[in-house]
Amino acid sequence: MLVGSPLKCKTYLNQQMKSLPVPGILCGDYYKKLSQIYFPKVSFNKMRIYELYCVHLGLATSSCVLEHSRRLAATIWEITGLPNNPADIL
């Protein structure tokens, strides 16, 4: 069970998303810019952003992949014991 409730994104702006660099380790500004767009009132220094990869070895529907990813994220947070307030931007 997750602690807290998920934050809601302020806006879903596809045009602004197109101006962002490709996500990944080599583009360190991607998540900083993404957080400024979706959560403009929250300081980036107070956020922890993680990339979660969930690999399926067979065919899977998008809803199945999304559910598995959410369960995996919840399990990771439960095991670590860290306080959290998750935001899902999928």
SSE order in H/E notation?
HHH
Give the biggest beta sheet.
Answer: none
Runs in which pLDDT lies below 50 for 5 or more consecutive residues are none
**Radius of gyration from CA coordinates:** 14 Å
- Percent helix, as a range, is 25-40%
Mean pLDDT: 73
Outline: globular
What structural class results from the helix and strand content? Answer: mainly alpha
Tally the helices. 3
The amount of beta strand, in percent, is under 5%
Total strands: the figure is: 0
Cα-to-Cα separation, first versus last residue: 19 Å
Describe the structure in your own words.
GO terms for molecular function: guanyl-nucleotide exchange factor activity. One of its GO terms (cellular component) is BLOC-3 complex. The protein has helices at 14-18, 29-38, 62-80. It has 90 residues and is mainly α. It is globular and about 35 Å long.
Descriptive terms for the model:
mainly alpha, about 90 residues, about 40% helix, globular, 3 helices
Topology (SSEs and partners):
Elements: H1 14-18, H2 29-38, H3 62-80
Brief write-up:
This protein is an all-alpha fold and 90 residues long. It has helices at residues 14-18, 29-38, 62-80.
